[in-house]
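TL;DR need structure tokens for one chain.
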Amino acid sequence: MSPALWLMVAAILCPVWCQSDSEEDIIIQPELYLGPVFDIEDLSNPFQQLGRRGCLPDNFSVGNGTVEAIQACSRAVEPIEIQCGGRPRMGYYYQCIQNGIPVAGPNGFDAAAFLDLITSFSPDEGWQARAGHLALRCITSSDPGSCSGLSRGQQTIAVLACWKWMLTLDCDFCSAPESDWTAACRRGRFLAGSCRRGPAALLRGVTDQGGDGFSRREECMETMRNESGVQELLPQVAAGAITEERCELLSSVAEKFVVCLMRDFTSPNCQGGGYGKVELERLRRAAVSSTGGTQDALALLEVLDRCEDERDVRGFIACWTELEIYSCATEQANVVGLRS
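>> reply
TL;DR here they are.
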């Protein structure tokens, strides 16, 4: 289907397709809404951004009509209203793209074809292995046979969105911060936002135990709000009005928020400076008796096991971020798929 025809169909069917899902069933609502980690209205070519940041191998080349499909679908979907009754424009975008690249078969998403397509982009075996690994994470998390709730058709949209965001995160960790200042906003939204495996979500159960714990969380929220510039920052960031300065402030304040949440599980640094040391065993005991539910407790225990070598609070938070921020990509991509 040509992009022009696709646009006509999208415009006609918009009232039918745009059935709003219950947000409560999909996303944990945080006390401070910071917006999603990823911009679901970003229709730009991800390979151009990754190349500009130095995150693609020298011999990288996108063929098989992929560039043409991306460009044509971006032009076709651009005029569509940003939120059509709750359906993200990105859903139309990836539904259009799947018509131009060989990733969807008669029975829905074709995982083998997608992995073959990725391999065709570069002969660099290291890049192929990493890109394929990230793709498999997206495929597994969106499998209609799992608890994703996605149909076969929706899975294609979810995987394409997820893989783009996974590559972006990988680039955040391996490129210079100045190559893309939006990485600071992604980090801040992960730390203090609504990702299910982020600190704000997983520490909820251990900071809400009893009166003192609840007071700690309230205290941290109030402290975060009272940071210089934050009262103006939060509504701007939630609305997507981000700048380099705002992203840097958000990242800094979000880290302080997590440090505050962990205060009952840290000991002071005897040599002065920094945020102190993480008391892993105390935090493990709190996780076991967490009020946040079994899945949250297990997820927190996994973070503690995998980041146990990082006893410094700041290092521990960095480890947590690098370990779990990828889960935000799968989580948010599945939401895009479910609404498409």
